[in-house]
Amino acid sequence: MVEVMRQEVLALEGRRRLYTGLSLALLLAVVLSGYSEASALNSGGFLQGLSKFFNYPAQIVSQAWDQGWAFWALFPKFLPALIETLNIAAVATIIGAVFAMILSLLSSRNLEVPPAVIPFVRRIMDIMRAFPELIIALFLIFVLGASPVPAAIAVAFHTSGALGKLFSEVNENIDVKPLEGLKAVGGNWLQRVRFGVIPQVLPNYSSYFLLRFEINVRASAILGFVGAGGIGTELSRAIGWGAGSETAALFLMLFLSIVAIDQLSTFLRRHFVGSENFS
User: Fold this and answer.
1) The whole model's pTM is what?
2) What is the DSSP letter of 44?
3) Who's near 65: CB < 8 A, 6+ residues apart?
4) Rounded Cα distance, 153 and 114, in Å
5) 155 contacts 216 by C-beta, under 8 angstroms
6) pLDDT tens-digit readout, 121-152
7) 187 torsion bin: left (phi>0), alpha (psi -120 to 50), beta (else)
C-alpha cells in the first residue's frame, strides 16, 4: 500500500514538472515570437538602444561636474519643493493611517464585528488598493486643478486601503483574552478596543506607518510629474529643458532625503517594536 502511494506521488510530481516545463516553454516561445516586432518598434532597435542606456545619466553627471561648487548652490533653490513633497507625504500618511485603523477594526473577525460588515469593508479596502495613486491624482487634478491637494488626497486614499489590510492582519493576531476580560466586567466595544486592542497593536501599527511614509515620499515625488507640485514638478521641468545639473541636484536631494527618512524610520521602528523583534 505504501509503495502504491509512493508511485502515485511520484507520478503526480512528474506530471507537475511536465506541466511546468510546458508552461515555461510556451511563455518563452511567446516572448521570442514578439521580440523581433518589439525591437523593430523600439526607437533604433532594442539592442542598439540598450547600448545607449547610460548616455543620459553620464550626460547629467558631466554637466553637474562642470558646474563645480556652483552645483551645490542649487540645493537651497529646490529645498522648498522638497519640503512640499515631504509635507504631501506626511499629511497623506497621517490621514490614510487614521482611516486605515477604522477600516481595519471593522474588518477583523476576532473583534465581534457584525458578520455582514466585514466583507463589505474588506471590499472597500480592495477598491482603495486597486487604483494607483497616479490614476487617482490625474482624475483629481482634472476636477480640482493642479496643486498639492490632489496628490495628498490620492496618496491618502491608496494608503487607507494598503495600511487597512496590514492593520487588519495585525488585529487578527492579537491575544483575545484581555478582550474577554473587559467584556466580562461590562466593557463596551469601544472600551474593549481602546484598552484591549490598541495597546497590543500600536507597536506594529507604528512600524507599518513609518514604512508607508517612506513609500509615500517616493509616490509624492512621482505625482509631481503630472502637476501635483513638489520636487517631482521641478524634476519634470529640469528634464524637459535639458538642465542636466538641476536634474542631478534634484535626483541627489531626493535620494538623500529618502536615505535619511529610511534611517530615521529604522531607528523609530526599532524603538517602537523593540530590537529583539526587529528585523
Assistant:
1) 0.74
2) T
3) 71
4) 30
5) yes
6) 999 999 998 888 888 888 888 888 778 888 89
7) beta
